[in-house]
Amino acid sequence: MKVYLDVCCLNRPFDDQNQTRIRLESEAILIIMNQLYIKDWEWIGSDVLIVELENTPNIEKRKYLIELTKKIQTNVNITKQEIIRANKLATLGFKSFDAMHIACAESVNADIFLTTDDKLLKKSIKEKNNINIPIANPLSWLMEMI
Question: What is the pTM of this model?
Answer without folding.
Answer: 0.96
